[in-house]
Amino acid sequence: MNQTGWRKFAARLRVEFGHLIALNASDRRWQMPFAAALASGLPLLVGAYFDRMAYGLTSTLGGLVFLYLPNTPMYHRMVTLMACAFGLIACYALGLISHFFYPAVVLMLTVISILVSMVCRFYRVGPPGSLFFVMAASIGAYSPTELLQVPLQVGLLTMGSLLGCLIAFVYSLYVLRFNTPQPVMPLPQATFDYVIFDSVVIGLSVGLSLVLAQLLGLDRPYWVPVSCLAVIQGMSLRAVWNKQLHRIVGTSVGLLLAGLLFALPFEKWSIGLMVIVLTFVIESLVVRHYGLATIFITPLTILLAEATTLGQGSILDVIEARFFDTLLGCLVGMLGGICIHSKAFRQVTSRTLRRLIPARLSITGGDDKV
């Protein structure tokens, strides 16, 4: 490579490094991360009190619904949150049911990813979008649950969701005294490509990531589709690439942090307190820098998935598995993002998809606009 080529390469690296370390402005008050931390951590503290940590972990998943709280008037906040709670419960229940027929897991997760992405895009649900719905379904599909335990597990997640809604209500009573809510805007016009085509590609990519995880015999394949979905949801190819980079680098550093944290002596109360602290840090950072937040997301997700078995096996095996899960999911998500943002791929595939979905069955009326 000549000198000019090296200069171009170095300039390109500086640009990528700039994207990697860029910080976003944030007006998020500390009360929001604190309330989110309570919604995630209180179920674990209750589980610790009754010596039922497994129950607390399931309810903690329901508490994630708090993160869908919009910055709108109270009536719209609570209706939106209750609708999201219903969706979270339904996805988790379907995941649990598919667990008893292993070949149905990939089909279930693909269909849920497509439908949830369509609904979130049509109603313009903000971040985290369809992520936690798919995560709930994925975790449910790989939960070691007996058939008669399904109603109990769904009930536990429902109680966690109700607690998240209650905390959101109290938080809203406080924060609306100081912040003027955003007006409820009418839904913008939804296009076939944005609502249906993109959602189908996202769902198929999530399904493909899970198929690859199963073919490779990964021990914890539920995290592969979650990583895939987190990356592919970028609004542009640059956003997809940045998210992939942030997630891989952040996960790598986060695994080192996890190794240090899990070397400490653990007991049931400290697990709940650590979840509260990690959630607070994550929600304070995620709007500023996704990569920094991922550093703390990694030990949190490992803690939630392995809390009942910590100390019973090698944490190095868990860390290694999580790294390869994330890497595989990000690569498939990047491939799906390239397909979504490729004009040539969109023109060919969208035309075929329009013929498969008649106008009378399309939520966008089969036209470019509603």
Oligomeric state as shown:
single chain
Judging from the principal axes of the Cα atoms, what is the shape?
Answer: globular
Radius of gyration: 21 Å
The low-confidence runs, each spanning 5 or more residues with pLDDT under 50, are none
Tell me, rounded to a whole number, the average pLDDT: 83
Helix content: over 70%
Strand content: under 5%
- As for the number of domains, it is 1
Q: How many helical elements?
A: 14
Order of helices and strands: HHHHHHHHHHHHHH
Structural class: mainly alpha
Report the span from N to C terminus: 52 Å
Which helices and strands, and how do they pair?
Blueprint lengths: L2 H19 L9 H19 L3 H11 L10 H25 L5 H19 L8 H11 L8 H26 L16 H24 L7 H10 L4 H25 L6 H18 L4 H17 L8 H26 L2 H14 L14
Helix pairs in contact: 2-3, 2-7, 2-11, 3-7, 4-5, 4-6, 4-7, 5-6, 5-8, 6-9, 8-9, 8-13, 9-10, 9-13, 10-12, 10-13, 11-12
Structure overview:
This protein has 370 residues and is mainly α. The longest helix has 26 residues, at 150-175. The radius of gyration is 21 Å and the shape is globular. The protein has one domain (29-359). The termini are far apart. It contains 14 helices and no strands. Helix content is 71%, strand content 0%.
